[in-house]
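Pilot study result, target chain (123 residues):
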Amino acid sequence: RTNSVFVNARSYGTKRIGAYSDDGRITFKKIVLLNTLVQPVHGCEGSTNYNQKTNQLFYSGLTETSTIRTNLLLHISTDNGESWFYVKSICSGPSAYSSLTLMHNQSIGVLYEKGRIIGVPDS
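Predicted structure:
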């Protein structure tokens, strides 16, 4: 959709929030709780990337709802962020901040923080 913007953000609860703009981010008229995207209780950064060729929106983020940052998953939306579906586990152990990129072959690249000890990311 031309001039459409979707913002996926952490919240102060265990669910992420989404904001929608149809005027190129001048106004955000629709702000919703994304019930299928859970996060640690104090939130954590996630990453969103859109593939224009396939009209798919990807999200990587943590799905542990306690204060521990573990279980980084990849989700996909085919309806501009209205609903999300689990795709793949990226890291089941200690993990945190991630960044998605669309590769030339249309696959998704993921850069993320990973740790050996729960709560202490080291790379």
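One observation from the pilot: The chain has a mean pLDDT of 90. A full batch analysis is planned for the follow-on phase.
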